[in-house]
Amino acid sequence: MNNMNQMMKQVKKMQQQMMKAQEELETKTVEGTAGGGVVTVTVNGHKKLLDIAIKPEAVDPDDVEMLQDLVLTAVNDALVKAEELANKDMGKFTGGMNIPGLF
User: What distance in Å separates the CA atoms of residue 35 and residue 37, rounded to the nearest whole number?
Assistant: First the structure.
């Protein structure tokens, strides 16, 4: 019975650590870029888009499609980095297993 109580305490502690790590992901940010840095986006660890920065040289009224492609590329780059950040931070608790719905 004592082992069971000890195990439950460890599980509760791990849950608290996971919740804290999940909360911290909201404050951590990553950047994605495209076009050599003419488009930069910032995303937090919860994959929420926080900022888009576009340098003036990226804006060509005659080639709007290029700017759209740059924004898409930068956003996708940032989202991949945010996923990697979440996997790294939360992987400490899951032993590297990707548990659907956990993060």
Answer: 5
